[in-house]
Each structure stands twice: as C-alpha cells, then as structure tokens.
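Hey,
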Amino acid sequence: MNNTRDDILHLAKLSNLQLTDAEISALQQDVTNIVGYISQLDELDTTGVEPTYQVFEMENVWRADEIKPQDATREQLLALAPDQAQNMIKVQKVL
C-alpha cells in the first residue's frame, strides 16, 4: 500500500505537525514500510496460538484490600485538621 502525499499531509494536520517536504517524503516511506510489515503479520497463521497478554507469568501483585481497624475516633481525626466546621474538614476551593 502506497501512502500518498495527501495522506501524510492529512496525518500531519490531525497531529498538528508542520512538516518540510523532506520530512513528508521520509514519513511517507516510513508509513509505507510500517503498513507493509503489518500486512506481513496479517498473513501469519496464528491458529491455536494463545494470545499473549503479558510476557511475565505474573498476576497482580497488589496487596489485599482489607479494612484495618483504627483506634482513632472521628473527633480525634477532626482535631488534627487545621480548619473544620460542622464535623467536616474545611479546605480551600479547588475550582
């Protein structure tokens, strides 16, 4: 598949890129090579090959999401806040 100059200019416009004529020619050749390589991969018979989602045989290594009992009361925690009102911590406006 050959990518025309117009195709490259369209991609450049979508990407908000300003390309020189030399860059357009080089990019046109690069995109043609990439699409050609992908076409070769499309021809491979992958019947019976399991998809590879991860190259290392690891599963999530997250810690368990457990509720840990706390000794502090609501009042003790609110007392640590620099500013509070009506059982809530007051913070500066974000937006």
